Amino acid sequence: MIYVVGFGPGDPKRMTPEAQEAIQSADIVVGYRTYTELLKTMFPDKEYLENGMRGEMERCRAAVQKALEGKNVAVVCSGDAGIYGMAGLVWETVEQMDAVNRVEVHVVAGLTAAMSGAALLGAPLGHDLAIISLSDLMTPWELICKRLKAAADADFCIALYNPSSHSRKEHFIEACEILLRYKDGNTPCGLAYSIGREGEHTQTVLLKDLHEAEVDMQTVVLIGNSRTRMIGDKMVTPRGYLEKYGTSREYENTGV
Q1: Fewest Cβ atoms closer than 10 Å to its Cβ: which of 9, 115, 124, 245?
Q2: What total number of domains does the chain contain?
Q3: Alpha carbon distances (Å) from 165 to 38, 55, 130, 212
């Protein structure tokens, strides 16, 4: 059995009971070293197979091999296993190793960064949204720009993952320029840093000033739609209840 586990942002309080049970039931925990170090404090008695950045394929092959040997394996990743996580690659590796009918795979959902960052910032993702990674490691930058344009033009709320790294700081600047072509410069934006880990904090800015914000790979950037506004110090994107039902008393009278 392979459990592909999204364990959330790293804070044990934000890890689902299902994720905890899956890791606890595993004989071996396989993951990126940064993530396994977070888990070792919670599951110190487990056997860990770990490596560094860009070792995903090696980890998946090792996980499938251990499962073929009869071990229960937890392949772990932060956030959700199916959103920029390991679930897809695990399935592809199972297929590649001709183990589709020999290894059972169970994907365990987790709290992805867009959701946990949105909770810290208020309710910025209250309507239709798009999640876009600015990392061009797997996706050509031209395609990322095309998706940014489409999402901004369609007035989606947008969550940006992996906004900047040491080797591609200019991508975030270009992304902000693209968004400004389609969205009002006064659109509220929020940044959530180190979610669920030491140093967690947030800030809000207007889209026209977003390019000046400090961002890194541990930052999630949330851009509102044309109706997003600030209530106090929180971002809120209305779903449309007040417009549809009127005052709170009229809404109560609908029986909803």
Answers
A1: 245
A2: 2
A3: 22, 18, 21, 15
